[in-house]
Queue: 2 jobs
Job 1
Amino acid sequence: MTTHLTSARPAAGSRKESRRRPPAPSTTTVGRPSFAWAVPAALFFALFAIVPLIMVAVLSFMSWDGISSPEFVGTDNWSRLADDPVMLKSIWLTLLLTVLGVVLQTPLSILLGVWAAGHQRNRAVLSVIYFIPLLLSATAVSVLWRALLDPNFGIPAEATWLFGDGNLFGEQTTAIGVLAFVSTWQFTPFHTLIYQGAARAVPQVLYQAAEIDGAGRYRQFFHITLPQLRTSMITSMILMIVGGLTTFETVLILTQGGPGTDTTISAYYMYDKAFKSFDYGIGSAIALALVVAATIISLIVVRVSGYDKMRSSMEGVS
Amino acid sequence: MRRRPNYLAGAGSLVWLVLVGLPLYVMLAATLRTRQDYAENGPVSLPDSFTLDNFTGAFDSGFGQYFFNTLVVTACVIGIVLLLVPPLAYAIVRSRGRATSAIFRLFLLGLAIPAQAVIVPMFYLISEAGLYDNLLGVILPTAAFCLPMSALILSGSMRDISPELYEAMAMDGASPRRMFFQLVMPLSRGGLSTIVVFSALQAWNGFLFPLVLTQSDSTKVVTLGLYNFQTAHGIDIPGLLGAVVLSMVPILLVYLFARRALVQGLMGVGGK
């Protein structure tokens, strides 16, 4: 299966061997755990993730101010949202930021990942620094960049030749640019890791064959490496899309949705409606729309990446 | 031929190094400078003053308490994950029943649920349960949202255990329980440390649940402390960056010790 070839765990050599071993005849079910072992985790998860997920659907048809009891209002929230220019704008902004994220991060992380998978002498040292953004909370990253890009005391005030008057947060274009840049800064290392693992798993035979045929480095990259990264590319892009749809802290801290509503993406609008305007019904409706979008995308992840087939492909091993 | 250095990629990686290194330098340098020095000489210059006031300032505005709260949240989340996920992963890998594969599917689907999606009903549930503004009200949902990824990582590592070992134990008449404690748990130490690091990162960096589910200073966590500090002292950039650096220290320490576990765990996320 292709999932074996692109396995992203080069260090786990034993894993590959065990996968290649022919299926051992498993005649007995003696000593196999019952599903009861999975029940506590499933119950806990159901209570804190699945139940709220069902509730969000119910609440989206209710009006609730957080104090009095929720009241059924039918599709009122939905029709209000459909007529709300800020909501429509927020969907457009969410899509824009998501696409920008994918376009900026994909080429960058493929290049860095392939580079890091090779035999570079200084890689170990550099990769420690590279991956630091991965560890930081979105809060810390956003606060850091808000400070670095401060119009009066930050880098723009120093480099006016590059930033003009320096107030990057005062205008829609630059504010969106900052948001896309900060997300790229934070998440590129993660996607680099995905590609690094995948690039290491490309069978060396392919490169050896290409070299015999006289293919140069760049032809090898475009004709072997890139096609071999296809599965990881799809997974990584889908993770970027789900991440893009749910960006929140970055917007809350860097722009507060502003100037005006110029960077009010849907997730921020949901927070604003529910927890600032105390209109939890509308908030739920926006949240539900986000869930539906994220679920559709991750169903695609599961299909494409073969997560759901993992069990059957491992049948012989387990 | 492939061993020849790749200059183009090397140059690209140097650009990235600057993009990551420069902000980190500015941050660290600013943290050790006085406010006047930073304002007069700008962020990129070399510091001409040295002070630790930016750190003490953060502690004066309550960061000690926030650290303690975050520590409690993180420890409890790790505890819950370690209690629930190993049996779950064991069942996913070893049980043949349809119920187990349904549960596995539930968790796969759960990977897709963003915290924003459930925050309104979570606020309702936690308030109804009387846990609003209580650390337990933050711990429970945070732990729940660590489960899907942890289950995926740990079941991946449990699959590496050779089937012969199970069969040998089954031959000796070992119960699933004995296999779990004497075979599976000792052999999944790598996977266990990955899920510990992963959950710790999630809990330490969590923002939305604390933002919505807590209110008072006594339940505030570090990320919220940062957010409030920014709103209140936005102009005091060295002070603010001092707080940012403080918030990172524990995670960087964990990273130094557990880099392998973390990087491998994250690598396994997308490549399969």
Job 2
Amino acid sequence: MAQQLAMVIDAAKCIDCKGCVAACKVANNVPEGQFRNWIKHAEYRAVPGISDNGVRFQPGACMHCENPTCVAACPTGATYKDFDTGEVVIDASLCIGCGNCIPACPYHARYRNEVTRKADKCNYCPERRAAGLQPACVDTCPTKARVFGDINDPTSAAGALFLKNKERLTRVTAKTNTLPNMYYLGDPGPGDWGGEAVVPASMVAMQESAPFIKGIVALSGLGVLAMLGRQLFAGSGSDHKEDTDA
Amino acid sequence: MSRRDFFRASGLVAAGAVGGPALLGGLTKARAASPAKPAWDSRFSACDMCFNKCGLIARVEDGVITKLDPNPKFLKSRGMLCARGNAGLAQVYDPDRLKHPLLRKGARGEGKWQRIPWDEALDMAAQKMAEVREKYTPCGHLFTAGSDLQSQFVGRFAEVYGSFNVTSHESLCLVSGSRAFLDTFGEVPFADVLNSKYILMVGANRFEALVTPDSIDLMTTIRENGCKLVTLDPRYTKTAALSHEWYPVRPGTDMAFMLALAHVIINEKLFDPQWIADKTFGIEQLTAHVQRYTPGFAAEQCGIPAEDIARIARELAAAAPSSMVYPGRRTSDYEDSTQIRRSFAIVNGLLGNWDRPGGLLAARQVGLKGVPYDAPWYDENREDRIDAGKVPMMFEHEGSFVVTRDSVLNDDPYPIRGWFIYKTNPMGTAPNRKKTIEMMNKMDFVTVVDIAMSDTAWMADLVLPSQSYLERKDPCSGLQGSVACACVVKRDPVIDPLYESRPLFDIMKDIAGRMELGEFFDFTLDEYREKQTREIPEALGVMDRDGVYYNPSKVYGIYDGRIYKTLSKKVELYNQRYEQMGLDPLPEYTPPAGPAKNQFRMVIGRNAMITQSSTANNALLHQFLPTNTLWLNPEAAGRLGIKDGDLVEVTSPVGRQELKAEVTDRIRPDTVFMLSGYNTLSTMQHLSHNNGASINELLDDDFDAITGNASMHTTFVTVTRKVA
């Protein structure tokens, strides 16, 4: 089975200390006033006496959805779902900063990075993972409310938690249900889980257009690539292996 | 083929057309998949964004710190780093940092400075200190240091210089609580939160005022171990919100609640009679004493129903000895703080939780040793501290800041004209800021060593830039981590020091050398560390490997077969020494004054994102808390015609400030609250200057009658809408 990277969050353990938000900002150079992740809470009322214990702080970020509406909204393919890992990825080299994906995320997980002028969001800290570390928010969390990993792997912390608590897990959804890969243990409490995905009409049309348009695009692309490849790399060795998927 | 692939192909076309393989290489590198392993170095250190000293690993690339991560092997902090810890970078690379020695040119507090070379600065500091000693005796110089691994060198310097006048931050924080527990158990305990079954949290806010490992263990124990958490607080804090029960206790009535708990536990015989007989002193006196403090009496005082008080007493007793009244830390609240905290300690005594799982623990063996020295004798010196004899049970090594300040202002009993301050900011932490300014104005010469132009530095004559915790080498330090660990940490520089900053140790050594006191600083920090670890020689190597050394010392039953360090050699429910000194041997409840009509009691407190005045100017944390607000209950706000976000004027007997109102039901109608650290005078803290309100400007400077601990909850203020 392919990987599905996800967060399993025990909202009942979150104390709203903002450690995860601070760690994320430093780890990812998130510009001043912008955020890749958050801790939300519903308005809670101060009621003296025995508590119904309904107060929950809700840590969140990009949910790396099964049906990511942001992917459909991206005109260049910079945002895509990596089916090997389950991540929703932004390829910065392809992002033109058009901003279509921002309202397309019903969870408001995306923003236009003020410095790079490109779309930005949680990417589960790939540099850290390559170094054997947890994403910054998970690593730093005082109460370890955030748990990250491959939920298809029962030996990972997230997988074990996911399998053990399958019945108790809440997959919160915005009005547009994108099947997010962020799971809350037990009841995460009431909250603003987001609205409707707004995908530009042109992009919807393109998404649903007749397959032959896609075919033409693909064919022309392939043709161009084939020619280019022959021109540039004939006999130049294997250092361009990554690009053979084109 | 998807759009993505199409555009990737187009990109290739463009690359191919323009520049060929070189550009193509750039494109390949920029792909999002499988990034290369980062080229950072990982270096151990210990956090210094508050006093907890959590273990961290600094990731350093090309001599620049890019990220601070928790050290997973650091059990005291449970492998975490909070928002403040993460913001350590913003402190090190703060553009507002002090960069070189500065000498005041204009009037005090006017903000005119001249850059001078280090040699000139050190010569001047030494010369001025010598002059003060000459003119006013060694005790004519005051030394103040915050909680820091190098602070001990300020104490050492003061002693060899000859001054008894050393104050710390503690008398603005917790000494009354320490006094109360020390005088009950013979030492100041650590709470075994993780193994407790029932915790009563009063006068503490553990989920916002983070203390390691207690804050973290509290969450673990209530969510995983079935521990019950009951919180009393005039504010609905995050701790209150996550508790099983919360009561908005009337400020200043905690003692009535505690004595009523004792009343129920004693009268219903809910204690372990064997334990009480063997281990405690004064149950008879206590029994007689608490008869008048019925739950009904307490209910009238606290505003908490009598049946709830009685039930909580029974539940606490049923869970004993694995239950506790959490000791708390910041105990600088009322003029009878020590007695209030004594009532907390007495309930713990009745629960029999001392030195047992889930209760209060004695300090564990860490293994570090002190480095003794013989201070010189000065014939001309005074007999005692300037604040001596003004309160009966002050801690000699902490002093009382507010009492010292009054004594300085009145030259009572002798003048103090020099002041050396390291890594603490009394201008931003002590109540009644105007008085601190007056105290500054009394001085011939004030030297401040800090990394930023705090308000205290702003009022000084000479400001010396020190190194941050990530740039310097520190001595070893022993830390208590409750049941988690007793450990030793050290700090080594993770980057080269910035600007002209120097560590305090070097500064003290250099000044001492210029004053013929060099022999007392005739060592390196490595030699000092070796002396500290002489009984645990393996520790230094282990710290290099893991960032921390653990001493495998006993956790529970430390007092089995040992006598308690009290007069009766038992847990003193009834304190015999207090009786001898004419103090109440059992806490006597005095109802607190209530606010007059249209007045409010002002309370202080913390947030997980600030450490008082040291973080209000931190660029990262500023994004979470751009300013402070005045918490005001909707009922009171409605009466005063104040809406959420309105600018309000807050007036106390000592000062006046303006800030925005936050109308919220998370505070009692008779109480207001604001965070500390804002509205600095120093314009060289550009985020906190002229931003929000200074609580220090408003708070009156009453103090605890037993220890001289400042009492921060005795100020009443009026609030009016500011008409634009």
